[in-house]
Predict the 3D structure of the following.
Amino acid sequence: MSENKSRLQTLFEQGEFVVTGEIGPPKAATGEGIREHAKHLQGYCDATNLTDNQTAIVRLSSIAAGIHVLRAGMEPIVQMTCRDRNRIAIQSDLLGAYSLGIKNLLCLTGDHQSFGNHPTAANVFDVDSIQLIRMVKRMRDEKVFACGEQIKHDEPRFFIGAVANPFADPFEVRVYRMEKKINAGAQFFQTQIIFDLERFERWMELVRERGLHERAYIMAGVMPVKSAKVASYMQKFVSGMIVPDDMIERLKKAENQQAEAVEICVEQIKYIKNIKGVKGVHIMAVGWEEIVPTIVEKAGLLPRPAVPGVKVAVV
Amino acid sequence: MIIAEQKPFEEIARMVEIFDKVLILGCNECVTVCLAGGEKEVGLMATSLRLLRKQGDRPIITLEETITRQCEWEYLDQIEKLAEEAECIISMACGVGVQFVAERFPDKWVIPALNTKSAGGSVKHGLWEERCGLCGECILHKTGGLCPVARCSKRILNGPCGGSQNGKCEVKDVDCIWDQIYKKMTIIGKLEQLLEIEPEKDWSKARDGGPRKVVREDVMIYE
């Protein structure tokens, strides 16, 4: 079934240090911007995430966005959260996504709706991220729906991803929960954005202690922070993130803050690449996608490997 | 107990503006304990309404009564005459009480004076917190006696999510219950249990399955 494997999975299996990007779909009914972003990332990232109404703001659907990315010739990683759909809608969407050629799925619980532009909306959370991961794995490996009913033919065969946040509390629980996600079926992880490298290293130590780096591919999340102002804002208002003071200071002192931002991000990637157990880097250049090629190049991650035989196209 | 709080007074006043004689009905159970709809609050409501209406040149007659429980027919039977006298009944009970009153007195207009908030308790003077999500199938034995259904903003069963920091939820002013569950399970030596994947919940036992009933044939009286 190797022809069915995603490009992402194939690269991990070949032992490559994988690079992924992220595209936030627009608050409009057009795929133009998505395709444009995908073209920018093409050749610099091996695949790109499509976020699912991130921070609970209504946007073009992640699955539809994934199709636009496929049309642009790039491989999508579709994000799926538990906030807006119950188990029926989730499974239905997954059948649809796979039928159109989407092969990578990232399963998350999702930001609470109180952060978004519809704070009075009902939330669903029928299942949580761990239950979602298991559901997707069972659809693939046991060929059953969540209720146990057989999927008679053409079951969705996703490469299953999950997220981990080394910067949330309680610290030790983060590794347990990661293990729980692996037990549920997660094959690769993308971490929350890392600024506090020391804490990330301590977390990776715990990950290695439990042998989790050998059971799943771990990608470290990084983000080029455009200015000291943005960094301060994130420190104050973005939950589940640690933004160190010295990074803000360094940006403040820089003559050219954007150049410094790139420099910081590149340094982080080079450092992270040498941490045992890290198999790739996920670059989240929220609203600054055009800088990704520069970062990838400066971090010495070019050229991206070719994967002959893996088809990247809308089915 | 049921936690409730009074609606803004202006809202209640607007709801009764077309009536000239009302019965303000308190309840001696939960809403008395949470200081929302007991005898004292009934008195205050009556005085405030009379004062307002006098100022507005349309005086209102207020009848006041507080009964043991509004959610039981036998106590409602006791106020039959009073109810007949009034044009409408302002129930100062929880949503359950309001509905029992409406059902017991089918030809009466019933107005809710409270907003029913949750099933919980008083954690200190002046602070009431939700504790039970009324999900219909208790899982507290799995979570150290702390309920993620009621107390996690995402009601997730395999927590804590990535938004937990310093014991706080990503949602404003909420404590992370999964942080507390983790600590409790550590203390009682049951941490390993949290590694087990909690399967999808049967929400049909909760409100999602439609209105719920408890039937006890053994205590039913057949006439």
